[in-house]
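Morning. Coffee machine broken again, so started the prediction first thing and wrote up yesterday's gels while waiting. Chain of 339 residues, entered below exactly as on the submission form.
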Amino acid sequence: MQSLKHTESHKEKKQAAYLSLAIGFLMFFLKITAFIITGSSAILSDAIESIVHIFATSIAFISLLISLRPPDESHPYGHGKIEYFSAGFEGGLIIVAAASIIFFAIEDLIFGVELQKLDLGAYLIFASSVINLGLGLFLVKIGRKTNSLILEADGKHILTDSITSIAVLISIIFVMITEFKLLDPIIAIFVALNIIVTGYKLVRQSFRGLMQERDEELIEKIIPALNELRRDDFIEVHKLRAWSAGNFHYVDFHLIIPSYYSIEESHSIQKYLTESLREKIGTDLQTMIHFDPCKSSHCFYCMKRDCSIRQYEFKFPIEWTKDNCLSEFVVEKVNNNSK
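Came back before lunch.
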């Protein structure tokens, strides 16, 4: 059943990537035609953005095919990190495109701009903005549904492209009404600045993944799940770490259990927690648990009533809060707080 679900997810990703690439070529054709007809620098900036989209989507599609490969001997943790390379590359291209837009716009501000047949150009840009808006929302939705950073990044890129087109359309209409032609390059500059912000966010997201930055969203899911799965012989969780790479999510933590537990019992706990967390979080979750034996100081916080080595009476359980789970020395901190 899970295998079928994965296959359907991969199929959705590929279909979305094909659609994005095909529409990218259509958008470029519409915008470059509009530029040739009108001579608008704002429309040219929009067309440049479409060229970047085609190039970036091609890279993204190749990256997507690689990221969908299962783990192998050379890549035991899978190929998910290629998504971060792709997102970072696309973010960089967005910034470069925005810089070129600003360059052409400043040139037009200095030397002036000649515009013609703006009504026809407006129709073409309107059509492209509507199509891009629908495609961008679709890709972001599919990207989040399938946990694909590549598709989500591509969708956000296309949404910025749509915003660009809408801003250009508004400027064209305003120029047609007022004949204030310098508005055309001014709008192009403002649009470019907005694009730079989006590019920066994608690059930042890429670096977070490549540097294995802590996944706060995953941690917020893991800690409540661990609390639901807690047993009386699970004394303390500490040194919890969580990060993601594409579709795959990784969690490791230390769990203090009674010191007399055998390897078989530890293995049983590992299996119980791993399978239960996958049911709650998702099948792409990889869990590593380091078991620590309890010490006499843990007796105060151990809820296991029938413990054969108990030296002190139970006082209260250690709360598995985010702060405690991420800490390295929980018992010492609890002891200090209870004094």
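The first strand starts at residue 236 and ends at 245. Going to sketch it on the whiteboard this afternoon.
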